[in-house]
């Protein structure tokens, strides 16, 4: 376990990072938080959901291939919108560039402040590995309210070789054409009505890596609970090694693929190579019309 951790930290130091920000200081902040999101809880494999700057949880991530994004025609009502609240101005940081495109965002009141849910798609030609999203909120007068960062849950698994060490390790990446999501909890004392602009940028590693099989979510069903809607299903370990402490994060989606809420499930089981783990998550208050499920585990 220690060897694996050291390899991943070495990778963060050795490999070039692709950033959507032209600011070196800000790019470094987001990169550091993205790396910690990977190394926390899953020994550097994958991205996790985010909190404030410099925090996050890790995991090997995958987007379930079932009833996920698309497939439903959106209507004219506000529930079908890709950005909520509708008066939010969402934009990439000036001078930013990269392969990820933020296509949907929800900013809503949570249990301890505001919750921001974002969905991005890789519109480029290279995988985006160990990715993180950073957002800055501005009020109705254009004054900054603060900035927060979260690791991005990712889908696919890649095997890459460290240039200097010659060792191989695994990264979880957003493949070209795939979707990634995050939840960022904004615990500052900010009223939803006071937020008018969201400026974002992201960071990721651009790796010369080979795709491999990883963790796969299957057989997901919705379950009605007293608190709302829960998700039950199976994670299959298609890696060639056992994993421990499996968990899953499921985003409820509207017809535009906008994340509405996040449900979590996990335990301390061991899952052998080729084995599976069944789960039932916590509940979301709004189920929407689809979901995106991201599994995680520790090596």
At a glance:
By secondary structure, the chain is mainly beta. It folds into two domains: 2-56 and 78-207, no CATH class; 212-298, Immunoglobulin-like (Sandwich).
Helix content range: under 10%
N-C termini distance: 7 Å
Structure class: mainly beta
Give the overall pLDDT as a whole number: 77
Portion in strands: over 45%
H/E topology pattern: HEHEEEEEEEEEEEEEEEEEE
Q: Sheet bearing the most strands, described?
A: 8 strands, mixed
Radius of gyration: 18 Å
Uncertain segments are 1-19, 21-72
Structure annotation, total helices: 2
Topology summary:
Blueprint (H helix, E strand, L loop, with lengths): L1 H13 L2 E3 L4 H16 L43 E2 L4 E4 L7 E11 L2 E10 L5 E12 L4 E8 L4 E6 L6 E7 L4 E8 L8 E11 L4 E3 L2 E11 L2 E10 L5 E11 L5 E8 L3 E2 L4 E5 L9 E9 L1
Parallel strand pairs: 2-4, 3-11
Antiparallel strand pairs: 1-11, 4-5, 5-10, 6-7, 6-9, 6-11, 8-9, 8-12, 13-14, 14-18, 15-16, 15-17, 15-19
What does this structure look like?
This protein is mainly beta and about 300 residues long. About 10% of the residues lie in helices and about 45% in strands. The chain folds into two domains: about 180 residues, no CATH class; about 90 residues, Immunoglobulin-like (Sandwich). It has two helices and 19 strands. The strands form four sheets. Strands 1, 3, 6, 7, 8, 9, 11 and 12 form an eight-stranded mixed beta sheet that branches. It has a four-stranded mixed beta sheet with strand order 2-4-5-10, with no helix packed on it. Strands 15, 16, 17 and 19 form a four-stranded antiparallel beta sheet that branches. Strand 4 and strand 5 form a beta hairpin. The longest helix is centred in the N-terminal third of the chain and has 16 residues. The chain starts with a helix and ends with a strand. The N terminus is likely disordered.
